[in-house]
TrEMBL record:
<keyword id="KW-0732">Signal</keyword>
<dbReference type="InterPro" id="IPR047589">
    <property type="entry name" value="DUF11_rpt"/>
</dbReference>
<feature type="domain" description="DUF7507">
    <location>
        <begin position="161"/>
        <end position="255"/>
    </location>
</feature>
<protein>
    <recommendedName>
        <fullName>DUF7507 domain-containing protein</fullName>
    </recommendedName>
</protein>
<feature type="signal peptide">
    <location>
        <begin position="1"/>
        <end position="36"/>
    </location>
</feature>
<feature type="domain" description="DUF7507">
    <location>
        <begin position="293"/>
        <end position="381"/>
    </location>
</feature>
<dbReference type="InterPro" id="IPR013783">
    <property type="entry name" value="Ig-like_fold"/>
</dbReference>
<dbReference type="Pfam" id="PF24346">
    <property type="entry name" value="DUF7507"/>
</dbReference>
<feature type="compositionally biased region" description="Basic and acidic residues">
    <location>
        <begin position="398"/>
        <end position="430"/>
    </location>
</feature>
<feature type="region of interest" description="Disordered">
    <location>
        <begin position="391"/>
        <end position="434"/>
    </location>
</feature>
<dbReference type="InterPro" id="IPR051172">
    <property type="entry name" value="Chlamydia_OmcB"/>
</dbReference>
<dbReference type="InterPro" id="IPR055354">
    <property type="entry name" value="DUF7507"/>
</dbReference>
Amino acid sequence: MSRLVPSGRAGAWGRLAAGALLAGAMLTVGASPAMADTVISINPENVPTTAADFTQKCDPNLGGGPYENEDVWVFNLPGSNPPTDEFVTVTGTWSTPSGTVTRTIPTAQDSALVNNMGTSKAWIVLPAGWTLTGATAVVTGTERFFVLTHTCAASNPQVRPSLSLTKKGAPASGLKAGDVVTYTYTVTNTSTGTTSSITGITVADDTVTGITCVATSLAPGASTTCTGKYTVTAADVAAGKIVNVAQASGLFGQQTVPSNKATFTVTTQKPQASLSIDKKARVDSDCREKCENDGFAAKGDKIHYTYRVTNTGTVTITDVAVNDPTAGPVVCNSTTLAPGTSTDCHAVKPYVVTHSDVKRGKVVNTARATGKFGSQTVVSDPATVTVCIRHGKHDHRKDHDKGHDKDHDKDHDKDHGKDHDKDHDKDHGKLPVTGDDTGGTLALGGGLLAAGSLLLGASRFRRRAGSTL
């Protein structure tokens, strides 16, 4: 599309060049230096606005128009006196359906500076419906501000209602189960070609519920803030992050207007998958009342093993099981454990004490809990239980029994001796005691011994005599 260039533009540039030469000549002869360029802002009363909402004037010397689906914007530097006071550049900021854009005159396409129409002016042609939100200019001279003097709106501007959405969450990292994330949503009406508001604005999030907005009706260019809260779950921790998607929507008349989809990611603590196991043994003896219920085993006794497995990590563990080679197969009440929960397990069959166990003096076995976290295999630290054989070499009671039996026998013999003598005397009576007990006893014994000897000698004498006859 062709653009009209002001006929006096070449002459203005010629005068500007001549002025520059004159300034150079003045500097050569020692004149005062030229005033430095300054930056000024647009009159704040001129923004924000769309071209269709501003003063309309279509000037062939200032951008021309009207054009189909394009707006012309014209800026003026009041009180300027080119070539000493004029625009050097004009930079504007516009809100568009795709975001904020900036354009600088005269470097942007379809833009120009005009300095031969009284005051210094600038124009630019842009897509229809954009909203001017601010502008600055670099100028020579002492002007304090500039203005948007008029626009030439598109001949048939296309109405484009739209919403934009941005999203963020806090805290955004290091989260654990039970923590609360607050999500903040910013909804902006980015409609073009209209001044009508979008109403009934809401925000939907695939993870967060109960989102509320400060305002639910927005004019073009206006924004509102919405908030929602979410409580982190164990599943989120297991995943390592929370990625959720939100979208705003509203009504433009009877038309539903959706926003872009906004995504935000928060990260959780590094998943920790771990198990612990506690193990117990109970001895069931066949000898019943004849054996002590002391926890020791003997050959043929049955040992029943039970276990308690606990999830000590931060993630849910599945396929929970117990591996105990000595006890054999083990069954558990639950095979899925959430963080902090436990399950009880037991060996399917009791272990029967063998002759080899008796020779070793004890039964020792070790168990581990296992499970799955995704593709990861989780294994607990080992738990070992030892059952000693009754009266075996690892029966710690033997040392106690030996000392106890020795003392018991000593005391028993002492007491039993006293009682036996007492009872014997009672049954057989006591010998009569005359004079000294010791002397009498020896004398009586000696006499009996002598008499016995004489009788023995006489008997032998008779046998020899008989044999010679």
